[in-house]
Amino acid sequence: MLIPLDRRITTACGYFDAGQHSHLLKALPGLLADTREAARSRQDLDFARLSACYSLTAQVLTKIGRYDQSRLSVRATIYADLSGSPLAAAAAARELSIVLRHQNQSAAAQRHILDAVTRVEKTGLQTPAQASAYAQMLCTTSYTAARAGDRDQALTMIRDAARAARDLPHDPPQGRLFPLTPAAVDLYAVGVHWALGDAGAALEAGRGLHESQFTTPERKARMHTDLARAWWQWGKPEQTAAELLSALRASPGEVRDRPAIRTIATDLRTRHAQTAGVRELAASLSTRTA
After folding, report:
1. How far apart are CA 54 and CA 195, in angstroms?
2. Which terminus of the chain, N or C, has fewer Cβ atoms within 10 Å?
3. 3-state secondary structure of 168
4. Structural contact between residues 16 and 222, judged by C-beta atoms closer than 8 angstroms
């Protein structure tokens, strides 16, 4: 029996949200082939589905460090434009900006994410979905600016994002393209301050965060890995190890599959082997799960 494309896309997104990257990578080739075939209809919805699948592919490839392959996010922008959906176009532009940022093309990354902000602004922000998309674009713009060393823009944008997200629901409806919440903006603030080299401000921004504010294992673990990066930047190995252990419990793939986070774990084992939690962390990472 053929499984409808929408259900398969939902399943694929579920793999990402659960941190099950190997399952997602196995599912994507067939899903992309079938969504490409469906897009021969030249219907807007089919173009939007195909764009979403390319964006998801780029997202997981970027997360696991395959930055060259994740450049196929360019295709997401092409099909998003064909779909006529400003939110799909913004999502694709955002994903491309993230890929460019990881490839040290900060000017191009800024250009694409600012284009995404403009696209969403032009909708008039008349619906909750549009308001959520706008706040998400501001968060990404802020982090992109922070990674490029543009402190003023980074801090301005994250403040704007917090204001834009103030009235967003703490439990977004299922299926929303950008399920951003006020807590998610606070988590972005952690990353922004870390990227600007201010570990103290990063930890202050994340002081009120806890797992129950996030609905997926991927986001719960991301909270812990972002806090771990801030503790590591501040030179606190015990707190770093504790956060990475919490991340492993929430979603092992967020630690095992992300090169930057694995590097921190490796450095902990090499430089702080006797610190509380480090031995347990090393043992957990040496045992891979499917």
Report:
1. 27
2. N
3. coil
4. no
H or E, element range at 47: helix 44-63
Q: What is the pLDDT of residues 121-149, one digit of tens each?
A: 989 999 999 999 999 999 999 999 999 99
CA distance 166 to 223: 20
Separation between Cα atoms, residue 112 and residue 109, nearest integer Å: 5
DSSP single-letter state for residue 287: S
Give the type of residue at 7.
Answer: R
Q: Kindly provide the residue ranges of all beta strands, DSSP E only, lying in 187-268, ordered along the sequence.
A: none
List the domain boundaries for the chain.
42-122, 136-167+179-204, 210-290
Q: What is the rounded distance in angstroms from the CA atom of residue 120 to the CA atom of residue 194?
A: 27
Tell me the per-residue pLDDT of 5-63, one tens digit each, with 9 for 90 and over: 999 999 999 999 999 999 999 999 999 999 999 999 999 999 999 999 999 999 999 99
Q: What is the DSSP string of 103-123?
A: TT-HHHHHHHHHHHHHHHHTT
Radius of gyration in angstroms for the set of CA atoms belonging to the chain, rounded to a whole number: 19
